[in-house]
């Protein structure tokens, strides 16, 4: 699916709805305004429903925005204000559900003509907000991913990027100051580079359709046109049904969409999975395929003349025959990878380590047999200081007849403090009541169980395993990867020979006997 196809579907739907409103309801006042209402209404319903199946995906995207805003304002020296964003991030799930429901209800309101003035105002403000977010996402490509430094030599000063500053040091320049870079230093922007973008997509269509930031931004600029037309022409917008019926439809839509959103993360995982770790996916085979394609992707060279800024682009084969024409003393040479034949997904980033830092990815994916993979992207806890006594022993070593004999000189009790983890009762109970019985029953059939959490210390992981009484290992991986794998904490995946047979929200986890009967026989 592409944005062009989505737009075509919405245009066709808009035309059909406009025809129905004119011929069936006979409520059309303006062909143009009616079509715009139906087109934008259906567009919002479409983009809202593909996000409603996975509200946590939008929440995680909001976390990325809040993190980037925090960083940008901190770089501006607004530390107090920047701390607002981690607090806002704690409500990301609520914001996500609220925004998705608003988008869906707006779609219904536009099509039926509910409260034309306020609907047009809210639609306009919503599109403005989306445009700001997608514009920020896109324009960060012009913001260098490193800070500036002030360099000085023989009374001459200039500001350059850190990489350039390191080169100047070799030429006798001295760094005199660090200059933090942030989004609002427009004069310090550099040529566009997608690698500078911290948020790589807007999440406009969830994981159903991932758009490049530039495309998302242009899409929202386009939506500003109907937003303006309805804002100033709302009196020509159609209305169907009586006022009481319209109000009832909005109330029912709000309640229905809210319940549907909540059902896709509180009580169960999304019924429709647009992510790469869907049921039936062979993680092992797909990862190997993506890695091979990435290795075989064409290599291109971008050469920039240091003196006049001339830019030459050429494939690797051409560069290898002409490399003597581009000495490094005169040219900056950048190597770039082209697009691989197989699109890279989060499966390429599936890397897992044990608590000692040893990579266990191959062991997990190449295991022949059945495994239960328990995913907890976060272990919830509080901490408190506790004191304990330890003995500080002073030893001495005597040499008697060429033999070294140790002896205790003194033993002094010493009081020390350490962090104690107070684990979240709900999460601990989910393991004890659901995961451990499944793991114990599976072990009798040779089904191995392991858990994965976000990168954490060995002490933290072992403390949690001791708290739940588990006899299986817990590994660590990137938290974003784990959030992508399953929208539940904990979530359980049944894997056989590297292939996902099924996955569950912990609240929907069947008994081992039920799972065995349906998926292992």
Describe this structure in words.
The strands form 4 sheets. A 5-stranded mixed beta sheet has the order 11-10-7-12-13. It has a 3-stranded antiparallel beta sheet with strand order 2-1-3. A 3-stranded antiparallel beta sheet has the order 5-4-6. The radius of gyration is 29 Å and the shape is globular. It is built from 17 helices and 13 strands. The chain is of the alpha+beta class and 521 residues long. Helix 3 packs across helix 6, helix 6 runs antiparallel to helix 10 and helix 7 runs antiparallel to helix 9. The chain is 47% helix and 21% strand. Helix 15 links the parallel strand 10 and strand 11.
Keywords, separated by commas or semicolons:
521 residues; alpha+beta; five-stranded mixed sheet; three-stranded antiparallel sheet; 17 helices; 13 strands; 47% helix
Order of helices and strands: HHHHHHHEEHEHHHEEHEHEEEHEHEHEEH
Q: Portion of residues in helices?
A: 40-55%
Classify the secondary structure makeup into a structural class.
Answer: alpha+beta
Q: What is the number of beta strands?
A: 13
Morphology: globular
**Number of helical regions:** 17
Strand content: 15-25%
Name the strands of the widest sheet in spatial order.
11-10-7-12-13
Largest β sheet strand count, sense and barrel closure: 5 strands, mixed
CA(first)-CA(last) distance:
36 Å
The pLDDT mean sits at 90
Radius of gyration: 29 Å
Give the uncertain stretches in residue-range form.
none
